[in-house]
Design goal:
Layout: E1 4-8, H1 32-42, E2 47-52, H2 57-68, E3 73-78, H3 100-105, E4 115-119, E5 122-123, H4 126-138, E6 144-151, E7 162-169, E8 175-187, E9 190-193, E10 201-202, E11 207-215, H5 219-234, H6 244-253, E12 257-261, E13 268-269, H7 276-288
Parallel strand pairs: 1-2, 1-4, 2-3, 6-12
Antiparallel strand pairs: 4-11, 5-13, 6-11, 7-8, 7-11, 8-9, 9-10
Length: 298
């Protein structure tokens, strides 16, 4: 059974200031998602599931259906505030959904096979998809998930702070714990976090999650149970978020393994508007090196 790719595209991209997920960066107007889907198809994925907001559905389908029709199966899933909340009394002041684990949970009815999860606005590189597919085809199980690990130093932005899932590895080289750190930047040759947590400074060789995960479908019932517990503990906090690293950490504590899949691929993303020219240049460089055709889908 071919693995599925889930793309998290429901965010409003508040810091970027526009709906960056459908902004064109490639020479033919390709979005960053186009390159991820192209790489996924080449790596043997059989389906792509877009997690979006219902109000963006027509925009998304108009952009992606003509390109992808006949190339890969597509599904569209809506992340909404009351998805999977059951009879929990959602506070009236709560306006946004519950974060990345909640977003993935919204795909439970359309995914029955091992699957990868990525962000819509990050470029992950061909090798990352090849290595992820190999893991899902050969090693993925209800007791073993994976994360694609990137070098923190190569994922910072020159235009502001970033948030990253910082990875700590065990003696076997698997994930020991992952901690969401916010307001990370490089200052005077050091990597510092402005979030008030310790350590304030991170090693230069820190590995981070760029939110490229590989899961077995057992993730869904496991996460559904955890989400119910999360709501009881944090559901009345207006900005609480149920991140994927929360689930991964608990899975490890309960005896599960999260392998760290290596990659030599270049990562780049669009956190700020000012990042856009760098993304365009990086894509053009890859095209000139022959890594991608000038027009992806023609």
């Amino acid at each position: 059974m071919k693995p599925t790719l889930i793309i998290l595209a429901a965010g409003m991209a508040s810091r970027y200031g526009s709906m960056k997920q459908i902004q064109g960066f490639g020479p033919g107007g390709e979005t960053i998602m186009d390159y991820s889907i192209y790489d996924a198809i080449r790596a043997g994925f059989g389906k792509v599931v877009f997690i979006i907001r219902k109000e963006f559905a027509d925009d998304f389908k108009a952009i992606f259906e003509p390109k992808l029709n006949g190339k890969i199966k597509t599904e569209y899933v809506y992340q909404e505030l009351r998805s999977h909340t059951g009879d929990y009394p959602v506070p009236a002041e709560r306006t946004k959904p519950w974060g990345t684990s909640h977003a993935v949970l919204c795909a439970k009815d359309v995914v029955n096979e091992p699957f990868a999860v990525i962000n819509a606005d990050d470029f992950y590189g061909h090798q990352s998809f090849v290595n992820a597919a190999a893991f899902m085809n050969n090693d993925c199980s209800d007791k073993k998930f994976a994360i694609v690990g990137y070098d923190l130093l190569a994922t910072l932005s020159e235009h502001g702070t970033v948030n990253r899932g910082v990875c700590f590895l065990n003696a076997q080289g698997d994930l020991a714990t992952i901690t969401e750190r916010i307001n990370i930047s490089k200052k005077d040759g050091k990597i510092v976090c402005g979030d008030g947590l310790e350590p304030n400074e991170l090693p230069l060789d820190t590995r981070v999650s760029m939110n490229f995960w590989c899961f077995h479908p057992a993730f869904f019932p496991y996460t559904e149970k955890m989400f119910a517990e999360f709501l009881q503990a944090h559901g009345q906090e207006p900005k609480s978020e149920f991140f994927i690293p929360i689930v991964a950490d608990q899975f490890i504590k309960e005896g599960g393994v999260v392998a760290v899949v290596p990659t030599t691929s270049q990562w780049f993303g669009v956190t700020y508007k000012e990042d856009a020219p760098f993304v365009e240049k990086s894509l053009n460089d890859l095209i000139s090196q022959g890594a991608y055709p000038e027009r992806l889908w023609s």
